[in-house]
Amino acid sequence: MIRKAISPENLGSVLREARKQKGLNQTATGKLVGIDQPTVSKVEQGSGGTQLGTLFRLLAALELEMVIQPRSKTDVKNDGDKW
Amino acid sequence: MIRKAISPENLGSVLREARKQKGLNQTATGKLVGIDQPTVSKVEQGSGGTQLGTLFRLLAALELEMVIQPRSKTDVKNDGDKW
DNA sequence: ACGATCTATAGCTTATGCGCTATAAATTTA
DNA sequence: TAAATTTATAGCGCATAAGCTATAGATCGT
């Protein structure tokens, strides 16, 4: 499971996976936090133009949190799959 | 130096701290990745309107990466930081 | 194949980001 | 405290996000 994101595309993939993991569709997810379905779609496709406010609302809907840390040279996909 | 962010304000604080830790000012940081100083300022102040593309460029300038993970059950106000 | 559900795309409108430049506060340093 | 540096704010022009609605395309189940 990809957790690390260094680009909007990465992030979009992470969000999509998390959403499916929760059994939600784009419409339902967006409704939880006031984002319309087309916007959820664009974020998941990796739109770098997406705004931070939109991202954090999405994270809230999916019960996710963001961690900022120094870039690791060695890749980080440790941690037994928790989701 | 691992910091969680659940809002644009959180994130802005994290970025500002990381920048200072690297001994950079807003102008120098922005120049590394083609962002102007006023924009860096707004991001650090927590503008939810900041775009993801801008954020990722800033992360690159500061040699940071983003990790998305399930929200910790233990409250986010638990590691000594004030937000 | 069919219908139902889900996702992607499009047009319109309003709002706002960002680069650029200039300048005003605020902070640091001597 | 004055000067230098750094950060915040503002206006302009251009580009684009996001909400809304509609619909086309894709996917799933029967």
Automatic annotation (TrEMBL), chains A, B:
It comes from the Bacteria. Pfam families: HTH_3 (PF01381). SMART domains: HTH_XRE (SM00530). GO terms for molecular function: DNA binding. Residues 15-69 form the HTH cro/C1-type domain. SUPFAM superfamilies: lambda repressor-like DNA-binding domains. This is Helix-turn-helix domain-containing protein. It comes from Pelovirga terrestris.
